[in-house]
Specification:
With about 120 residues, this protein is mostly helical. It is built from five helices and two strands. The longest helix is centred in the N-terminal third of the chain and has 20 residues.
């Protein structure tokens, strides 16, 4: 069995700290049923217009989990999912004003955590 590389515990610790920070930041923003990882989807989208496939591929979310998260975030009015005019199967995800405001707060929190 290979030993764990020395940088892995530091990454895991930073991830735990990040999740705690995001949880505190979002305690009044997101209902308790939405995990902090959903907030990271919001932060990952930012001002870009992405497809669900882009989010899954670039942001490392599993397909069904990502689709479910996007549906819930759309219901909570943090983002919109629109069909392409030319190909209805193709979807585009954009943050709403509410989502953009939250993304800004999350990025500030991420910056603070990463600087520590």
């Amino acid at each position: 069995m290979n030993p764990m590389p020395p940088h892995i515990p530091k990454i895991l610790s930073a991830y735990d700290t990040l999740m705690e920070e995001v949880s505190l930041l979002l305690k009044d923003e997101l209902p308790p049923v939405l995990p902090p990882a959903y907030a990271l989807i919001i932060a990952a989208i930012g001002e870009e217009a992405l497809t669900p496939k882009d989010i899954r591929r670039k942001k490392f979310y599993v397909g069904t989990n990502c689709s479910y998260a996007l549906r819930l975030l759309e219901l909570r009015e943090y983002l919109t999912v629109k069909s392409d005019r030319a190909d209805r199967r193709q979807k585009t995800v954009r943050l709403t004003e509410k989502g953009l405001g939250l993304a800004k707060k999350i990025r500030l929190s991420l910056t603070k955590v990463m600087a520590a």
